[in-house]
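Convert to structure. Protein one:
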Amino acid sequence: MFAVDRLFLQLFIFCLFFQSNLCFSSTRTAILPLKTKLISFESLPRPPNKLFFHHNVSLTVSLTVGTPPQTVTMVIDTGSELSWLHCKKTSNTPSTFDPLRSSSYSPIGCSSPTCTTRTRDFTIPASCDPNNLCHATLSYADASSVEGNLASDTFHLGDSGLTGTVFGCMDSGSGSSSTPDEDSKTTGLIGMNRGSLSFVTQMGFPKFSYCISGHDSSGVLLFGEANFPWLGPLNYTPLVQISTPLPYFDRIAYTVQFEGIKVSGKVLALPKSVFVPEHSGAGQTMVDSGTQFTFLLGPVYTALKNEFMEQTKGVLRVLDDPNFVFQGAMDLCYLVELTRTSLPPLPTVSLMFRGAEMSVSAERLMYRVPGVVRGSDGVYCFTFGNSDLLGIEAYVIGHHHQQNVWMEYDLAKSRVGFVEIRVGA
């Protein structure tokens, strides 16, 4: 395993040598610094009529769009297709893209093939607005939504400009329920799934990778080959692909075959059928950088929760409060003395996929809930949640469990690869 600190140092020195926050080489490899954005826990909405579910950490990158270039900050989301930018400045969204300032900006008409055929995988069909422009509404699992018109413009990677890149120019005042604190920090979202309009598909790169540091807010996003001599062999698991449309199966997500879970080497006694999608498509397993934590369907979550509690009995103090459910789905939480500088030793949880395993250990198993204190104790929650409580009929592997892991999405060979990268040394 290679040290994360050394990885970031090498790549960032390389970028600084070219005096840019982005590197682009003649071999079609682009490197962008990756950041994590923390959203204030107190600012997140708590709707009385729905479960509270909202990420309070997002992965972001900065790049430039338009002619002349405008700097934008975008959330990286491997679970979404269409990239979009806020195009209407409000008090909640001071960070916006102004299409009137870009000579290369071009709106897309609703009769365009882009609107009529390439939007077929949108959950809400594209429509025609009063100006005959292609109108899109995008909704997300946290109940937020954005809407606006499809357009094209130049997205800049280093010295090269990717002209005609399709994205959504969104009116943040049209039904968006994202929070002001989150909107103020980002200009939009960059869709990275396997759809025809995703950013990575439009760029034509056969693969992309990223690595997130587990101890600070830094990371890297790389488009193209990661030909680094210090990067060890990756463990690959094939993507599950279904050509027939199913009501609950996202065909353009990065879907892998989940096969089981181990806790300190002990395989949970679960039937294989619980990991296989149903005839409706419900029960798929998606790798998603846009989701913070990992969510499991009810029976699997309950089995993992019970085994983890059994193996940490006498090591951790359970928070005995049935009304406290973090992010609407994480109901296993613990009390830890505020004076502690580190957590006690914890069992390793291994996620078993076809042909590969992902180990989750130590700090990645617990998350300190910001701003929540019980007496002289802080509250830490188990970083696996119950999908059933969210109404999500899927397994979702979030970015928290991808920390200190080199993640590779190989579109050409239809597989996802990963290898753990050690912090320090």
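Protein two, convert as well:
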Amino acid sequence: MEFSSNETRTMTYFDQFKIDIKSWCGGVCTLSDGSICDADKGWVDCQVEDGLKNCNVLKEPETLNRTIRFPETAVPAEETTYSCMIFNLPSYQDYHLMAYEPYIDNEMVMHHILIYGCDPNEDPVPDEQLNTVTKCGMSAASNCNQMIGLWAVGFPGYCIDGPMGFRIGQGGFKQAALEFHWNNPQLESNWKDSSGVTLFYTPKLRANDAGIMMTGQLNLEIPPGQQSYTVVGKCHSECSRKLIQDPINIFWATNHMHYLGHEMNIKVYRDGVYYTELTNDAIYNYDSPVEKKYSTAVQVLPGDEIVTTCKFKSLSRPKTTFYGDATSDEMCFGFLAFYPAANMPFSRCTAWKDISVCNLWLQQEHNDCKWVDFMFKNVNETKRVRDEVMANCKLFGNCLSECKATLQILFAEHPCMKGDVYELIKDQSLDLNNTEMQAFIVAVDSCKAEMAVDVYLQNLQNDNVNGSNRLGGISLILVSLIMYMMIK
């Protein structure tokens, strides 16, 4: 039998011959028919790193392990690359995944590794598509989205010591995906990587299945030259009430930002009152992430508000830093491991500005704005709004009076033209290259600046009528500057 790589060899050997690797390191490899396999174990790293030396489950005789690695793959000469590979998990019976350890082949490019379970209720990925590395953006496949493991720079590995584990096998995940984030800011063209993870799992099932919740903020615009700039992402109570069906217990947590991040915490509020703190990195270091393990799990209830606060120091940056995948971009995420997993099937509770993402994706609606329909479907209401704007506004040039009149009505009455949800529609239209919506947005924006000045002048006039006259000549100078910038 020939193998194209260590990873392929591992998977092909296990899956085709149904090897049960019981205590593979230092033990005996046996085939399903009871015979002993004469296999070279040189491709298995039998040393447990210091990060897992106190992991009790590794000392249990029932514990099995499997090493999953990318075949040696060329790293693109691009700053940021997401690559994924889907593979089969042991499925001869039910197991709990209890620990995992990184195998980092090229530390020059490896930013993080995520492990996602693939929905066992969906059709499995065909065999010919398994164990193949593909570019994947930030998602391996639409049905592989339940996070069951993560590694970032500085983590030695992870071990669960408690009454919970991630269920794999006959009654759990039968396939999973490895997602690699390669970071190559030097645009090196001759780098390769065959990193991976070793999974430790046991047929000795714990009392609970575990899951991982993601919190944080998806919209970041960090000004340059700031000593400290604060960003908040809320998992609002209305969202947690929809997502958390019954109480969950958080037993592990970690924070994630990039190099501008210098402080981060996650807090829980109950009935509007501070309840507890889940993480608190007073001094955050991207290269040395801190894990918080709780001796007693923290219970979170439906309706609790989970607030993620990130602080960034941008003194070294000459320009605004945005949310993004590269380490030169920024992130603001918390990862919270919890049980039982069944109590929170959809385990992402992030925000885009102050909009709860759960409403955007579960209901595809925010404050009566059906934003997906508004962006993509030419239903009667959407078509009416677009037709009105395109008939009265110019894509480029001056703000027309008829355009301003049309927009004043729409901004006042239409839920998709107000506040953060309109900004989200703009953002998504650019990301998804929705050219029809992009033209609509350019037409709307032809008058937005002038209308903002109109509102400001009206407020100023109201102040003067009420006798405050608090800004006077300074306001006129400010308005003149705004008008100058608009026509420049």
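The CA atoms of residues 21 and 64 lie 6 Å apart. The chain has three domains: 1-205, 210-363, 371-487.
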